[in-house]
Amino acid sequence: MRYLLLISHGTFAPGLHSVLDMLVGKRDDILSTSMEDGMGADVFVENLKQTIEPIGPDDEVFVFGDIIGGSPLTNTLNTLTEKGLLPRTTAFGGMNLPMVLTAAMESDLDSESLKGEIISEGQAAIREVELDLDDDEDEEDL
Length: 142
Hints:
By secondary structure, this protein is an alpha/beta fold. The chain has 6 helices and 4 strands, in the order E-H-E-H-E-H-E-H-H-H.
């Protein structure tokens, strides 16, 4: 099985997980945990170990972290290493909804194709929204 593991500071990962539940339904292959304000790394790692309990030695893990080099992602990769899962792990930083939604929706793709789709969708989602602020007509109607 391929698991999606969402990791973050604050409540970003559980919040994103909640949105995925709304969009794709609750699934056992999507897991999340976070390092909340004031939480030490030791407590985070214990929570993480409970979260990744279902992942077996033959499973694949796609980890989505909020910040590359951040404590949650670093501790997650260390914990996956201890559990012997790192060789079957792919990690992404800068997670956003389009990335994880793509990973959830395209679960039938092979890993290499899925990696490309995840990066492509994540990058494509980052752009400026151009606003039309020309309200001259509306002001005249008042």
